[in-house]
Amino acid sequence: MKIGIPRSLLYYYYYPLWRVFFEELGAEVVLSSHSAKGILAEGLKNAVDEVCLPVKMFYGHVLDLAGKADMIFLPRIVSVEKREYICPKILGLPDMIRCLKNLPPLIEVDINLYKNNKDFYCAIKNIGNIFTKNHLDIWRACLKALQVQKKYFKLMEMGLMPSEALALIEGRVEDKFLPDGEKFNIVLLGHPYNIYDPYISMDIIYRLRAMGAVVATAEHVSEKIVRSCAARLPKRLFWTLGNRMIGAALHYLEQPGISGMIHVAAFGCGPDSMTGGIIERYAHGSGLPFLNLTLDEHTGEAGVMTRLEAFLDMVRWRKAAFGS
Amino acid sequence: MKGYIGIDVGSVSTNIIFIDDGGAVTDAIYLRTQGQPIAMVQKGLKELSGKLPAGSKIRGVGTTGSGRNLAGIIVGADAVKNEITAHAVATSQVVPGVQTILEIGGQDSKIIILRHGVVTDFAMNTVCAAGTGSFLDQQAARLNIAIDQFGEIALQSESSVRIAGRCAVFAESDMIHKQQMGCGLPDILAGLCQALVRNYLNNVGKGKEILAPVVFQGGVAANVGMIRAFEQALGLPVKVPPYYNVMGAVGAALLAREAVAKRGYSFFKGFGISNMKYKTGSFECSGCSNLCEVVQITEDGEIIARWGDRCGKWSNAVREDKIS
Predict the structure, then answer these.
(1) Which CATH number fits domain A177-322: 3.40.50.1970, 3.40.50.11900, 3.40.50.10540, 3.30.420.10?
(2) What digits encode the pLDDT tens for the residues A278-295?
(3) Which CATH class is domain B2-87+248-275?
């Protein structure tokens, strides 16, 4: 059986887990194509209005899987952390997608760790039962999947980007030529499905690297540090991904040798407007150069390029004038 | 005379200036882009060559603005820089010690904060173009007044009316509403200026520390109504430099001077380019699902540049042809 996974949204966090789990149970995993104009166009045509760009893109990815997969994996990820939530649009995905026509059957399970971990094992059992009634096989697959997932998170903590960590796990080599030259550290914060999707972000990571920046993201910071830094906020945030961004921002603001911080938000994202604002205040307070980039459906790259170029000019200029 | 040319190709205007070795502006040409950036650059250069005394020598040329890459290819630029850096460089030279630059152009508005001669923060309008020059242009045309009288009329107002400046569409319906209620034209125009300033300070200037000296530039700085609205809102005197509407071009020329001093020679192709035939066209690459729109520029039938492809297949092909 072919299980389709949309290459979008939480794919950037949990793909290794999902893939190994399905493969261990004897299924074949098919990914949707890379984000591209055609995928977004399909998404725009079918998505409900007033959702953000990455959710529109998700629609396109799901539609891309029609005809390629026998079933589409579409969990309702409500919460992955005690007393925290994932964005409301992500937890509404199955309901939105269900309205699309001509799709293969969806694997919908709830993943909700808001209260405790019990629901996670329940979900694993429910998905596993599609393939086998043998509980031992399901747990074996789950353990193996969790192991690979742990390795994936570990590789990112070591400073790899998701695509690089994935390439390493899968034994591929991913290399893009980058010029040598003066290097400086730039922190890039944003939802993983925005900054790591080269189409949505206009390949921001590659562009920054090509302009001489060493790019650090929230995924490069360990869970423990993120938690302890985010706990400094007067009130805890509801969103797991927002907490990660804020925790990482507070951590990086204390590190020496950081030259600038960029926050990427999707236009219309509620949580982003809040977390971005909080991060901006802390960054201003510490005097670190800060840039807020808002992404939407524009295909013109001039706006993003102008802001990035100007930001890096400012970083270099300040470094030359005041030292690091 | 010896000196440098600066070209700023913006959405609404194309500005070409000439500075002498000392950095003083001797000629400034302000043209409406009218959707034909190449033709306007050619026209402007022709005009400039007619104005310069015989035997003048061009030591270098710099470009900026959203059309900077296009203009840069056509003239053979020594420096191709984003507008923020260009404006900051120019204003620091013209108004030493400047701490805040307010710039409102055709479709962009920006704020640049400098401290001790170094850019420390900046912002540009995000997805909304309300409060930029093209909106004022539109409204002037709708009210059938020449744009250069807009400010003078606004100054005659004794009590301005409140207009919603949050969005250009709402502002327009609000203006129509006030006009149908019988409010006077000067009061409506003054109200509009205040609405735009409010919108600018809330969006672009959000959270920025605005300190004197404040310099206001860009095409909209011609509007005395806007100058007064800014002074009222900020409670600070607002300075408008002599070449306020071509400051980006001045910055580009200054940056070209720096680049040529470093490199030792210029790439400038000469005034002959005014008579060359340029053609631009675009095609959709079908190499992958990205379906990039590739733009191609030909000079007298020879392809001189391509861009827009994400992978570099087309743009690099031109570069390789040139090297071999």
Answers:
(1) 3.40.50.11900
(2) 999 999 899 899 998 988
(3) alpha beta
Chain B residue nearest residue A32, CA to CA: B289
Q: Do B293 and A38 touch (CB under 8 A)?
A: no
Helix (H) or strand (E) holding B88: helix B83-94
Distance from the A314 Cα atom to the nearest Cα atom in chain B, whole angstroms: 6
Long-range contacts of B313-317 (CB under 8 A, 24+ apart): B313/B285, B313/B287, B314/B285
Alpha carbon distance A109, A106 (integer Å): 9
Length of chain A: 324
Q: Does A36 touch chain B (CB under 8 A)?
A: yes
> How close A289 gets to chain B, by Cα (Å)?
7
B207 and A33: CB-CB below 8 Å? Answer: no
The Cβ of residue A150 has, within 10 Å, a number of other Cβ atoms equal to 12
**How many Cβ pairs within 8 Å bridge chains A and B?**
70
Q: Which residue spans of chain A are classified as CATH 3.40.50.11900?
A: 177-322
Is the Cβ pair B289, A34 closer than 8 Å?
yes
Strand order in the sheet with A290-295: A213-217, A184-190, A258-266, A290-295
**Contact flag B83-A306 (C-beta cutoff 8 Å):** yes
pLDDT tens digit at each of 324 positions of chain B: 899 999 999 888 899 999 999 889 999 999 988 888 999 999 999 999 999 998 889 999 999 998 899 999 999 999 999 999 999 999 999 999 999 999 998 778 899 999 988 898 999 887 565 667 888 888 888 888 888 899 999 999 988 888 877 677 777 888 888 889 898 899 999 998 998 898 889 888 888 899 989 999 998 999 999 999 999 999 999 999 999 999 999 999 999 999 999 999 999 999 998 888 888 888 888 887 777 888 888 888 888 888 877 777 887 777 555 554
Looking at CATH, the fold of the domain delimited by B96-240 is given as Nucleotidyltransferase; domain 5 (3.30.420)
Q: Are A46 and A59 in contact (CB under 8 A)?
A: yes
Look at B118 and A199 and tell me if their CB atoms are within 8 Å.
Answer: no
Three-class secondary structure of residue A41 per DSSP: helix
Contact B118 A322 (CB under 8 A): yes
Contact B289 A317 (CB under 8 A): no
Chain B residues whose beta carbon lies within 8 Å of the beta carbon of residue A39:
289
Contact list in A for residue B286 (CB cut-off 8 A) is none
Model ipTM value: 0.79
> Could you give the CA distance from residue B267 to residue B276 in angstroms, rounded to a whole number?
17
Within chain B, all domains assigned CATH 3.30.420.40 are found at 2-87+248-275, 96-240
